[in-house]
TrEMBL record:
Coiled-coil residue windows: none
Domain HTH luxR-type per the UniProt entry, residue ranges: 149-214
Keyword Nucleotide-binding: no
Keyword Lipid metabolism part of the UniProt annotation: no
Protein name according to UniProt: Response regulator
InterPro entries assigned to the protein according to its UniProt record, in alphabetical order: CheY-like_superfamily, NreC/VraR/RcsB-like_REC, Sig_transdc_resp-reg_C-effctor, Sig_transdc_resp-reg_receiver, Tscrpt_reg_LuxR_C, WalR-like
Pfam families, A to Z: GerE, Response_reg
Keywords: DNA-binding, Phosphoprotein, Transcription, Transcription regulation
4-aspartylphosphate modifications at: 54
Organism: Streptomyces ardesiacus
UniProt signal peptide: none
Segments forming domain Response regulatory: 3-119
Length: 220
């Protein structure tokens, strides 16, 4: 079962999300929170695989909670689920290591798919969030980011670059292992090395670096 925490200051929203997720059969909502502070405290004291965070919440907003979870509960995968899909929110969420970004008008099956993807170690973006990312990559600042990303990747070995390229595609450790004819455990070791060398907190940040650098996976 995928254990989920729902954080939203509106009880009706939490109830609706709970109903959608529990209908999937392989997802269990183990906790709810009314604000970001409560979400962080709950995730640190409860076995949680995926946390769904709203952005605008009292006491502590969702993006601040996301950053704190990255520091204090790095094993929890975080999805931002919000009404506010502005470009800055999307980019800040990804920069803080969110495993995905969805809007509250997301279809129920898409929400379930996103939770499953996050639990499997993959990233998931709604179409609106994807457009923001694409627009940003196409901006003049993208050239500066690309140069910086290539500089940071220069210290990776050939095999580490291959693993990173597959992270950039959003592949899980198991899928990357199948592509590279390696065990899942070996891929996990390489991922840990890559994150350390690149000074990245999580897979999403490393994947964005791979995209910025234009790193392409090797042909199968």
């Amino acid at each position: 079962m995928i254990r989920v925490l729902i954080a939203d200051d509106e009880p009706l929203i939490r109830a609706g999300i709970r109903m959608i997720l529990t209908s999937a059969g392989d997802i269990e909502v183990v906790a709810e929170a009314r604000d970001g502070r409560e979400a962080v405290d709950t995730a640190r004291s409860t076995a949680v695989d995926v946390a769904l965070l709203d952005i605008q919440m009292p006491v502590m907003d969702g993006l601040t909670a996301l950053a704190e979870l990255g520091r204090t509960a790095p094993g929890v995968r975080v999805l931002i689920l919000t009404t506010f899909g502005e470009r800055d929110n999307v980019l800040r969420a990804l920069g803080h290591g969110s495993a995905g970004f969805l809007l509250k008008d997301t279809a129920p099956q898409e929400l379930i798919h996103a939770v499953r993807a996050a639990a499997a170690g993959n990233a998931y973006l709604s179409p609106a969030a994807t457009r923001h990312v694409v627009d940003t990559l196409a901006s003049p600042a993208a050239t500066v980011r690309a140069e910086e990303a290539r500089r940071r990747l220069a210290g990776l070995t050939g095999r580490e670059r291959e693993v990173l390229a597959l992270l950039g595609e959003g592949l899980s450790n198991a899928d990357a292992g199948a592509r590279l004819h390696m065990s899942e455990a070996t891929v996990k070791t390489y991922v840990s090395r890559v994150l350390t060398k690149l000074d990245c907190d999580n897979r999403v940040q490393a994947a964005l670096l791979a995209r910025d650098a234009g790193l392409e996976p090797c042909a199968e």
